[in-house]
Amino acid sequence: MIRRHILALVRRSLAEFPAVLLIGARQVGKSTMARQLVREKLLERYVTLDDLATLEASRSDPEGFIAGLPGSAVIDEVQRAPDLLRAVKRTIDAKRRPGRFLLTGSANVLARPEVTESLAGRMDVVRLEGSSVAERLGRPAPSALLGDLFRIRSAGDLVRRLETSISHGPSFERRALRDAVFFGGFPTVSLRRDPRFARRWFSAYLTTYIERDARDLARIQDPVPFGKLLRLAALQTGGLLNVKNLGSESGLDQRTAGRYLGLLETSFQVNRLLPWFAHTRKRLVKTPKIYVDDSGIACHLAGIDTPARLEGHPMNGALLETWAWAELRKLLALTPGIQTGFYRSHQGREVDFVLARGKSLWGIEVKLAASVTRRDLRGLVEMQEALGGDVRGLVLHAGDALVAFSKTLIAAPIRCLL
């Protein structure tokens, strides 16, 4: 079993909040983490609403179900009985103390329209992604990259800090990067690293998700256009979202396509990244980008059946960006206070990711190339000119060079994320 870096955050939240909601896609490790916390005696009992008898009991008498639990408990897959949140709230209000409930959900139960109780002030919400490369390599702590970006002001000092970091870290050759993108972050697939098994696993996962989870969440009568929409979204990963075109190609009207995309987001299959807005004389596009949450799923839906097929594939760059965004999200979950977005002008100049804390901004570009030239910095330079203020830039690339091009522009190996 791999050590999940976010586990320390969950433990701390249980020590501070009466309830913690642990959300994330199916098979990312929520139940495994919940059972581990029970074994550690932080919680007394584990129940799952995937069990039909337990689900029926929770729906027929939510108050009685909660009253029958011990002083602290895990309720797994709580989105299947959203009325339980009201009963949890009453129990917490009757006896408020930390660590009473760990709730898990493969869909964001707080985004369900029928849920009227948010447990605001009583519950922390923690997002669990798939495993990171650093976790699978056994690194005891996550990368300090994001903290270093906003803490170290001098480009020279930052380069020296990153040099020290990667010198003590694992090697990450191009083949390892290619494998990381292909297998993605689902622990079962990424630890086994078998292309044939990955194809079978992803196929079964998507079938189960479309036929069961999507129907349970949204009462979808015909799963075929829903599944087609997911596949078409995967082919656009890393690109600008066009809901109208996605709907048309899926045989759906724009309203239904928008509703289905919302369901894909609620169940952690895709996510939208919004453009960065700032006071500037230049107009920036207002359309979000869309990403598949897991690069392995995206590769599967794109028909890429082995890691070697990534080389030279027209989607190779977009899939690398999808993987890098997933790795960044895992670090962002552990580094609070950072806002995210992307930059793109109407002339088409783009910076993959924008990270902001206070008045400081970092633009981050992800490149498949093994070296970086000044040509690769053009988007970052334009962003600096357009936004002004304290704006700096980082190019993450597949090579080994770590260099400061100026006081505000740096190129570094992508293994700085590990």
Tell me what the structure shows.
This protein is an alpha/beta fold. It has 2 domains: 7-128, 3-Layer(aba) Sandwich (Rossmann fold); 135-417, no CATH class. It is 43% helix and 17% strand. It has 17 helices and 14 strands. It has a 6-stranded mixed beta sheet with strand order 9-10-11-12-14-13, sandwiched between helices. It has a 5-stranded parallel beta sheet with strand order 2-3-4-1-5, covered by helices on one side. Helix 9 (174-183) packs across helix 15, helix 12 crosses helix 13 and helix 12 (223-235) crosses helix 15. The protein is globular.
Helices and strands in order:
Elements: H1 7-16, E1 19-23, H2 30-39, E2 45-48, H3 52-60, H4 62-67, E3 73-76, H5 84-94, E4 101-105, E5 123-127, H6 133-136, H7 145-151, H8 155-167, H9 174-183, H10 187-192, H11 195-218, H12 223-235, E6 239-240, H13 243-250, H14 254-266, E7 270-273, E8 289-292, H15 295-301, H16 316-332, E9 339-344, E10 350-357, E11 360-366, H17 378-387, E12 390-397, E13 403-404, E14 409-413
Parallel strand pairs: 1-4, 1-5, 2-3, 3-4, 11-12, 12-14
Antiparallel strand pairs: 6-8, 7-8, 9-10, 10-11, 13-14
Helix pairs in contact: 9-15, 12-13, 12-15, 13-14, 15-16
